[in-house]
Design brief:
428 residues, alpha/beta, D-Maltodextrin-Binding Protein, domain 2, nine-stranded mixed β-sheet, 47% helix, globular
Amino acid sequence: MNKKAVGVVGAGMAVMMGVAGCSSSSSPDSGEAGGEAVTVFHRWTAGHQEAVESVLESCSDELGIPVDISNVPQADYEVQLPVALSSNNPPDIYALWPGGRAVFQAENGLIAPITDFYNEKIAPTFAEGVNAGATEADGEVYVMPFNVQPAEFYYRTDAFEANGLEEPETWDEFVDVVDTLVDAGDTPIVLATGSGWEPLFWFDTLIMRTAGPEFRERLMLGEESYLDPKVVEAMEHWAELIDAGAFNDSMTSMSWEEMVPFMVDGRADMMFMASFASNNLTTAGLVPGEDFKAFPFPTIDPDVEYATDGAMEGWATTGARDNEEDVHAILECFVSTPEATAYVEDFQVPSPNVEVPETAFAEDVRPFAAGWAAMTQQGVFQQNLELSTAPAVTDVAKRELPRFLANPDDMMMVLEELESASQAAYSE
């Protein structure tokens, strides 16, 4: 475990830095200067660690609130977090995702709701879809998101131009695109299932497009059945693509990183993935806006509320110590417009703060920034299945959905496995 203590700033200096450093209308109120350090526990390393800790240090200096930062790698975080939360000295702030895991921690008294603080101080500058996604089914907010990564289709422009194709907006148009590319001898879509989580974006979004985000949220919480006709309909749409030859072979032996070369060398024309994929495609040599572009998952039923699937990373609080004012001041500062802008400039991922200017993104990322903003501001933004439901259900989904993709005739057996896992997880 790595630890970093950010030094204490005196009260007088804190006041001056608070005035000078937080000029935006969304700047936070100053906390109690010079007090006991606010402890922060996170899982990020390398470039993301630098971006996160740079903001924390800036907020510490600005507010005069010392911060004690600890981090462990992602692979160890899932093991060490429960230990840290159950200890006699749990962290004040810790990295978490909105969704099922946060609700589970709330049910076990490990997390403090931040609903009133969030609605008053945070929500006004956040995208409406993010606010909806951060609010759990019980009406509480437990996690303050600070980045959002919506899932969308990335496509090779040369394949679309060569076949006279335009970005599809409806499911029928999308199927026509797939059929055209198949007829041209192309592999329309690359998908990997080697790690199990890659197809979860597909399952989530198909449920959203056929049954709506409210049904999908209840499904994640064990309040709807995986055998419901709405789920079956979503799976049938997926099977339609499989039968049409939309996907690549050998997906079970591939990891998500291996999807990128398929796009780069033209072995596939599209991929459906969270926004971080744009950076991978760019790093691999494709030019954004020229070699590849993006479009949101098409509408299936126009009467169903629009929603976006993806990932939101955020901060949760334990409320274990009598320092709520300082904790909330750090959180508010972290997503204030100046600090959120600095974070985006450093790490190049979308912020939920709608006041962050598009110029915070590098020029080669800006072609996608407007689309990401639109997706987070339209309808509901929901956390992907891996982070929205009970871990036991996630494990089954990561095993069974790849099975379905390899053998679509097993659809009902796959759904029965998911329903059994859901009932077991939520009947306790």
